[in-house]
Amino acid sequence: MRQEPFAVIWDVDGTLVDTAEMHFDAWVRMANELGRPFSRDDFSATFGRRNPEIIRFLFHQNFTEQEVREIGERKETYYRSEAEKGIELLPGVSDLLAALADRGVRQGVGSSAPRGNLDLILSLTASAKYFQTIVGMEDTQRGKPDPQVFLVAAERLGVPPNRCVVFEDAIAGVQAAKSGGMKCVAVTFAGHHGKEKLEEAGADRVVTSFDDISADDVLTMLADSSEAEV
Question: Cys staple from 210: which of 25, 92, 110, 184, with CB 3.0 to 4.6 Å?
């Protein structure tokens, strides 16, 4: 009997890499140009969300869709100019990506970031080869904590939600994974959210870094989850 595949869906910022300060500085610059300060509290309140939701949260103005796109792209231009100076995968990520691939686990990206950012990061870190699909901002209409980004990734990978585990670092991302019927491993290395808050959001396991979890651990989680649904 043919065994159905498992899948892992990776968030990017704070999970694969830590580019938070680059994003923060880009938002500060863009917001200042529009006459508004951008604080750490603003960053915490919007972390992990799509640009359209962030822009409307920050400015409470009736921007047109075109204006929202232009503001978002301006911010991302600032971000990418810094990212191009160099980005590295977070601890344990490279080994885990390779080990999951060796075990036949399908892998995808599910992120709120624009596709241009994702392609740049995967290129700079030489990790694109591990992913069978990449789902970004342009592929969704609703941001996390809505599960759409992860459900689209699962569909493209050809794996049902109960056979997927999401790797996340943000509360909204954990909530999205769980509401989509998936397991979730949350990582605290980048320090955007603490262990207690991530567990409250529903994370099935919280790790300090991906050095703390193996491909076999992930497969055990997935096997337990799929068997529980039978």
Answer: 92
Answer yes or no: 25 catalytic.
no
Place of tokens 């991530």: 198
Closest CA to 43 of 191, 197, 203: 191
Residue type, 75: K
d(CA 146, CA 150): 9
- Cα first-last separation, the chain: 16
Residue 139 designated active-site: no
Look up the pTM and report it: 0.87
**13-22, 44-53, 86-95, 141-150: which has the minimum mean pLDDT?**
44-53
The two structure tokens encoding residue 129: 């080869």
Report, at the CATH architecture level, how domain 7-18+88-228 is classified: 3-Layer(aba) Sandwich (3.40)
- In three-state secondary structure terms, 86 is coil
Architecture of the 20-83 domain:
Orthogonal Bundle (1.10)
CB 120 within 8 A of CB 84: yes
Strands 106-110 vs 133-135: parallel, antiparallel or unpaired: parallel
Cα 180 from Cα 201, distance rounded (Å): 13
